[in-house]
Amino acid sequence: MSDGPTDDTTLSERWLTVPDLVDLLGVTPGRIHRLFEQRTLLPARVDGVLRVPSEFLDGAEPLPELRGTLIVLGDNGFSDDEAVRWMLSEEPALGTSPIAALRAGRKAEVRRVAQSLL
C-alpha cells in the first residue's frame, strides 16, 4: 500500500470532480460528500483535487456493489487513496482489476480477496 495520493491518472478512463458528480447525479455537493462519508463512492486525491473514477458509477448512479467492498478495504486499514488505487489496479488473484470484476458480477470473489489483504 502506498502512502501518497493517487497520482497515476491512467488508472481510470475518466476522473470526475465533485462538480462533475453534482451535474451527473443531479444532487448537491453536500450529498456527494455524504456519499463519500458513507463509502457509497470513494474519492482519491488526483493532482491535488478530490476525484472519483468514472468506473465507480453505473450510469448516473454509484455502482451498488461498490460500497461493501470499500467498507472491507477501510476496515483493513486502507486509506481512501489506497482503496481507489487497489480497485483500479490489476489484482492477480482476480485476473483483472477489482472494479472490472465487480462490474462483471463477481462481488463475493472481490470481497473475499479484499478481506484477505492485510
Automatic annotation (TrEMBL):
GO terms assigned for molecular function: DNA binding
Annotated protein name in UniProt: Rv2175c family DNA-binding protein
Domain Rv2175c C-terminal as annotated: residue spans: 65-117
Keyword DNA-binding: yes
Residues annotated as domain DNA-binding protein Rv2175c wHTH: 7-57
Domain of life of the native organism: Bacteria
Keywords carried by this UniProt record: DNA-binding
